[in-house]
Amino acid sequence: MKVLIIINDAPYGTEKAWNALRIAMQFQRDFEGTEVRVSLMSDGVFCSVSNETTPNGFYNIERMIEAVIHKGGKVRLCTTCGEARGLKAMKLIEGVEWSGMKELTQWIADSDKVINY
Prior knowledge:
alpha/beta
């Protein structure tokens, strides 16, 4: 099975990114062999920024994305959205890839399930 999760919301301020990544991680735990893909768009591209410092006991999006990648998941951020927000000059989480609409539409067409946050 191939699952695509699209995150359009900022990493903090709402719990959308957190819940999206929780679902991604749960798919990886419960359905071995599932190809989990995460696409970061709009303010969701900020989920890819490295070196986060969050308060103790608070969720950390960077660690969650690293966990998804460590288990074989793919995480891509929209080049147009990232460049518009100045991310080209920032350090990103290792393993996150830049991509465009062509790659995203290929992922959508090729996925068994698409979840949008």
